[in-house]
Specification:
Blueprint: E1 5-6, E2 20-23, E3 33-37, E4 40-45, E5 48-54, E6 60-65, E7 69-78, E8 86-94, E9 96-99, E10 107-112, E11 127-134, E12 145-148, H1 150-158, E13 163-169, E14 182-184, E15 189-195, E16 202-206, E17 214-215, E18 223-225, H2 227-230, E19 236-240, E20 251-258, E21 266-271, E22 277-281, E23 290-299, E24 311-315, E25 324-326, E26 336-337, E27 344-349, E28 355-362, E29 369-371, E30 380-384, E31 390-400, E32 410-416, E33 422-424, E34 443-448, E35 456-461, E36 467-470, E37 474-478, E38 484-493, E39 503-509, E40 514-517, E41 520-521, E42 526-531, E43 537-546, E44 555-558, E45 565-569, E46 576-585, E47 594-597, E48 600-601, E49 606-611, E50 619-624, E51 630-637, E52 640-648, E53 655-659, E54 665-675, E55 684-690, E56 695-697, E57 706-707, E58 712-717, E59 723-730, E60 733-738, E61 744-749, E62 755-765, E63 774-780
Parallel strand pairs: 18-24, 26-32, 41-48, 57-63
Antiparallel strand pairs: 1-9, 2-3, 3-15, 4-5, 4-7, 6-7, 6-14, 7-13, 8-12, 8-15, 9-14, 10-11, 10-13, 16-17, 16-19, 19-22, 20-21, 20-23, 23-24, 25-27, 27-30, 28-29, 28-31, 31-32, 33-34, 34-37, 35-36, 35-38, 38-39, 40-42, 42-45, 43-44, 43-46, 46-47, 49-50, 50-53, 51-52, 51-54, 54-55, 56-58, ...
């Protein structure tokens, strides 16, 4: 009798290559798992007792099956990818595709020697240990078929084995009973949950807020620090943590202890960010000065990395003593020494033995420089070359290994001798402009010196041949021939012929023409008057720049016999800011440029509005302007900017126009005016308010008045186009009333209480559009 039962899901699976798929950990435990597919498989069979069937197609036979077949199947799984992992669970999974008898089932899993080409039924792989046995299953054929192999796989990985061979067979007592025979899909999988310990942390540093971080110092006493000077949070450690298992939730354990008392070890754990970085704020550990060691190790919730080698730091909060400054070349005080360009050495020192640097800056320097002594606590010398005479200074801080500054800086003041001549000119001031001067206008230049032995001065203007004037003080006269920057160079000469440093005296000679403009108005002729500073001016060139930075084309005007010129100009816009002008003489010399700022009157229209207090109510606009010869106004409204209207100007320059506003709200009317030459003015505007608030009147209850207790009536008038009804509220009760043909409604009312009372009214169209509200207030006396 054939008792074999085949699954309707039975398939023939070809042999596949070895593969490893690592799945992300579950959200609750973050334990990764690896699914191993078999690297090789095969079976031995009683019917072919002298050979092994390696990597055949089809299902794996297990136990007895018809025609004298009795089989054992073998599956090899590579374990190399689990090297050094801690195996937490291992499950062999697959499915049966056929069963001899569902009532009879016993499938064993053995760990064996590998199946080779020399294996056979007569020489099967040696069985090492029985790992699991499966009895009857709820489903037949069994799908899924699972075996817990945790202990065996864990032991194999710990032994360092690179592969494991698993045998599927029927126990010896039932092996020849076809009822126990099974067919198994040959794609068995070994699902291993495991964990590898995190890697040892790297990149150990102490954070600093304003400077580069301090790297781990592996030698005691390590890095000197003052926690208060590191970051706002004090001592903050950081490290980089990585883990070979993706998805693990990591923590970094920071530990520290005083080198003098290792038993006083303290530890704290801080989470690791997704990028592997981690920091720990641990200032409370370092309240006492001294040397400490610190380490880091990583945890993934299951395993821990090795601890890093110790780093060392020494806490030092004691400030060094202030620095002292000495200089032979530039001693302190008001007596001048040295001179501009004369270098001198300055030596910094401190009585503290742990000064590591001196921070200093001389006059005119914004940033501090740093100099290190040759040995800790020793002096340091820097050289400085003054660039300015008079009072100079150097400010110095002593700084120790921990970055502690002295309680105060040392301020050392010294005086640098001014060896250059002193030059003064009232007509042509140094680095300035006297607009009374100019080409052809002479000016005096006075020379003096701080030096005692001065016999004469050697000088030149604008690179001309050098000249000499005698005396300890002297005056020379110079008549500029060119505009813009002129340069005087002068040296004092001693009785022995020794020359001082050169004084370079720069002064500006203004050769730009003077400009005057009549009141400028858009559309009106204005006169520009140009007066020369450049001798022999024969021509002027002027142009304008607009507020947007663009410039007009230049206009060239010949000069009259006296050098002046006039030019008529009609502004076409008020967006002009500056007139630029230059002059030229007959030799082609061009003056410096004039920048003449002025304003152009845009002659914008004046607008006056009457009426149009409510929507669809006619209003009148009156236009007026200061533009000469106006012929036409153009105007438009803020509620319809695209539509332009025009109205002719009368003989008096005025005009009027009517309009009907279609909407309520704050509006503007804007306008400009054109003259006969086609020039438009600037825009003028006028705001007006169009209200759709309903009107309220009452003889018995006038607004903002106090009246006796009495009955009366209110008349409501609509100002909203298309209003269908009034909505009003008085004494907290809302009412409605239809809008009559004349736009009004009237209701009677008797007070119910004394005191201040509001009547709040608006209107509403048939589509529900509401007007603004009228808050009508009055006061009722006690009856």
């Amino acid at each position: 009798m054939n008792r074999w039962r085949r699954s309707v899901l039975s398939v023939t699976v070809a042999a596949v290559a070895f593969g490893v798929v690592t799945a992300p950990a579950q959200a609750d435990d973050h334990v990764p798992s690896t699914t191993l597919t078999r690297a090789e498989w095969g079976y031995v069979d009683l019917a072919t007792p002298n050979r092994a069937h390696l990597n055949p197609a089809g299902d794996a036979p297990v136990g007895a099956w018809p025609r004298n077949h009795v089989s054992r199947s073998y599956f090899r799984f590579d374990l190399g990818g689990l090297r050094s992992a801690d195996v937490l669970g291992a499950t062999l999974t697959g499915k049966e595709t056929a069963a001899g008898d569902c009532a009879e089932r016993a499938v064993q899993v053995w760990r064996t020697e590998p199946l080779t080409t020399k294996s056979s039924w007569l020489r099967p792989p040696k069985e090492r240990e029985l790992l699991a046995t499966a009895g009857p299953a709820q489903q037949c054929p069994a799908d899924p078929m699972t075996f817990d192999l945790t202990a065996a796989i864990k032991a194999a990985v710990q032994r360092g084995e690179s592969a494991v061979t698993l045998e599927l067979r029927v126990p010896k007592a039932q092996e020849r009973d076809q009822g126990y025979g099974r067919r198994v899909a040959n794609d068995l999988k070994l699902v291993v949950s495991h964990n590898k310990p995190p890697n040892v942390p790297v990149g150990l540093e102490i954070q600093r807020q304003r400077d580069p971080n301090l790297p781990c110092d592996p030698v005691s006493p390590g890095t000197y620090v003052n926690p208060a000077r590191l970051t706002d949070g004090g001592v903050v450690f950081q490290a980089k943590v990585t883990d070979p298992d993706p998805g693990d939730v990591l923590e970094a354990e920071y530990s520290t202890w005083p080198v003098a008392d290792p038993a006083a070890r303290q530890s704290v754990r801080w989470p690791v960010r997704e990028d592997g970085s981690t920091t720990a704020q641990v200032s409370e550990w370092y309240q006492t000065e001294g040397t400490y060691a610190w380490t880091v190790r990583a945890h993934d919730g299951t395993a821990s990395s090795a601890e890093t080698a110790p780093c060392y730091l020494t806490v030092d909060r004691t400030r060094p003593e202030p620095a002292t400054v000495t200089s032979a070349a530039y001693p302190p005080g008001w007596d001048p020494h040295g001179g501009i360009g004369v270098a001198g050495e300055f030596t910094f020192a401190s009585t503290s033995t742990d000064v590591a640097t001196y921070r200093y800056r001389f006059s005119g320097q914004s940033d501090f420089a740093v100099v290190r002594p040759a040995e800790l606590g020793g002096p340091a010398t820097v050289s400085f070359t003054p660039q300015n005479s008079g009072t100079n200074s150097v400010e110095v801080y002593a700084v120790d290994r921990a970055g502690n500054h002295a309680n105060w800086s040392t301020f050392y003041s010294f005086t640098v001798l001014e060896s250059r001549p002193i030059v003064f000119s009232g007509m042509y001031p140094d680095n300035g402009t006297n607009y009374e001067g100019g080409p052809g206008v002479p000016g005096d230049f006075e020379f003096s010196s701080w030096l005692q032995d001065v016999a004469s001065y050697a000088y030149s203007f604008n690179g001309d041949p050098e000249q000499t004037v005698a005396g300890r003080t002297a005056t020379v006269t110079f008549t500029p021939t060119k505009g813009d920057i002129n340069v005087l160079k002068v040296q004092s000469v001693s009785s022995t012929g020794e020359r001082s440093l050169t004084r370079e005296y720069r002064f500006k000679v203004d050769s730009a023409p003077r400009v005057a403009i009549d009141r400028a108005k858009v559309g009106s002729v204005s006169q520009i008057t140009l007066t020369p500073r450049l001798p022999g001016t024969v021509e002027y060139r002027y142009w304008f720049t607009h507020r947007d930075g663009t410039a007009t084309e230049p206009v060239i005007v010949p000069a009259g016999p006296d050098g002046t010129a006039t030019s008529a100009w009609t502004p076409t816009t008020d967006k002009i800011d500056v007139l630029h002008a230059t002059s030229r003489d007959a030799a082609g010399t061009v003056s410096t440029e004039t920048y003449f700022s002025f304003m152009v009157d845009g002659v914008a229209p004046y607008l006056t509005l009457t009426g149009a207090e409510h929507p669809e109510q006619q209003g009148t606009i009156t236009f007026n302007t200061q533009m000469e010869n106006p012929v036409e106004y153009e105007y438009w409204f803020s509620y319809d900017r695209e539509t332009k209207h025009r109205v002719a100007a009368g003989s008096d320059g005025k005009a009027t126009a009517t309009f009907v506003p279609p909407v309520a709200g704050y509006q503007h009317v804007l306008a400009r005016v054109r003259n006969a030459a086609g020039i438009w003015s600037a825009e003028g505007s006028q705001a007006f308010n169009v209200s759709d608030i309903p009107d309220v009147t009452s003889a018995e209850f006038p607004e903002n008045r106090t009246v006796p207790w009495r009955s009366g009536s209110f008349t409501l008038k609509s100002n909203q186009p298309g209003a269908a009804e009034f909505v009003y509220k008085i004494d907290g009760v809302e009412h409605t009333a239809p809008v009559g043909a004349d736009g009004t409604a009237t209701f009677d009312w008797t007070p119910t209480r004394a005191g201040g009372t509001y009547l709040v009214v608006n209107t509403r169209t048939a589509t529900g559009a509401r007007s603004l509200e009228n808050w009508y207030y009055f006061t009722i006396l006690e009856p």
